[in-house]
Amino acid sequence: MTSPQQFLLPDVGEGLTEAExxxxxxxxxDVVEVNxxxxxxxxxKAAVELPSPYAGVVSALHAEVGDLLPVGRPLITIDxxxxxxxxxxxxxxxxxxxxxxxxxxxxxxxxxQGTGAGxxxxxxxPAPAQxxxxxxxxVGAPEPAAARPAAKPPVRKLAKDLGVDxxxxxxxxxxxxxxREDVHEAARGATPQTxxxxxxxxNTETRIxxxxxxxxxxxxxVASAFTAPHVTExxxxxxxxxxxxxxxxxxxxxxxxxxxxxxxxxxxxxxxxLAKTSEANSSWDEAAQEIVLKHYVNLGVAAATDRGxxxxxxxxADRMSLHELAQALADLTATARAGRTSPQDMTGGxxxxxxxxxxxxxxxxxxxxxxxxxxxxxxxxxxxxxVVQDDDGNERIEPRWxxxxxxxxxxxxxxxxxxxxxxxxxxxILQEPGLAML
Length: 438
Description:
The structure is a single chain. It contains eight helices and 19 strands. The protein has helices at about 130-135, 155-160, 180-195, 210-225, 240-250, 260-275, 320-335, 415-430, and strands at about 5-10, 20-25, 30, 35-40, 45-50, 55-60, 70, 75-80, 95, 230-240, 280-285, 290-295, 300-305, 310, 315, 350-355, 375-380, 380-390, 395-410. α2 (about 155-160) runs parallel beside α3 and α6 (about 260-275) packs across α8. The longest helix is centred in the middle third of the chain and has 16 residues, at about 210-225. It starts with a strand and ends in a 7-residue tail after the last helix. Residues about 85-145 have low confidence and may be disordered.
């Protein structure tokens, strides 16, 4: 005799209240094993794959792709052969038996949560599984697996937002996958039949729900911009010596498996300069009316990903050797681009570095990561004419490697002198890397 087991959405971050369903890996009728990935969800901080705590047959999915589901709400129901505990004999803390729904607990390892009472709810979520609910579940039920169109989760979400049926879309992507352009093309073709709109606005606007990383980033930037008084200073610096050093380091055996980029040396110079301006590595405690000086540096590195802007940080970056810092930057970048940055890596940053130069721009006016006192933006490294003076005071113009730096800082925590010294010291080290030995 089978027993229906209900798995509730756990708190996959640190006190997060909801998550968006990105993609289901199973559908009603599928047989699942313990620890088999069943769904991918996205919180405000990261995308996370959730494993099944049960072995059995999926009887119901309680949310659709694109739904925002509050933590503690039913996610999936699985019929198992072992009532009361997860298949495999392991005690289950992440799912509940239907008769004891009020005793819902967490999936092991995902941190504490409440029962969901009082949590913010952006859109109605499916009710806990009941006999009539099983009939209303639509996810995956209408089509067999073989007929499911091939498309990535973001493309499926786009199709859902635009009201496009993926089974009617002709794929043009690799392996007959449906691309974003295919969906947009289908949406343009479907508009006259499905959603007549005024000629003035047809095909000229796309509305995208603000969720996940975009929503988190927007809220954080607004909070930062309107709570911390920003000051931004700029400097143009000759980094020819640093570029020569980069070539030298890249040729060394211990670095041959690492990507030695200019960003590595910008990070190193910034960390060295920070040691002389401790105010830049601090935060403002509004409640206690105190300035909190940090005696450690968790260097945040802003990374543009397909999910949006994320700022994971390197814990203890100030204590790392150049080789360790290069490895940490490589790991951070690869993880962020894969969309696998953990919530833990996104918290606890103390100061941030952002490389806008990778987009070919000279510089910008970065907004502080909330809770931090300083952020340094690095522009594109270019060949530019530079006035050079010899030992006799004679001047000449030479082509040099140059870039622009922009430092934004919280004027409550740093005054103009401290901000200027931090920026000037960073530039000086980049111009003469040997100064880092002092």
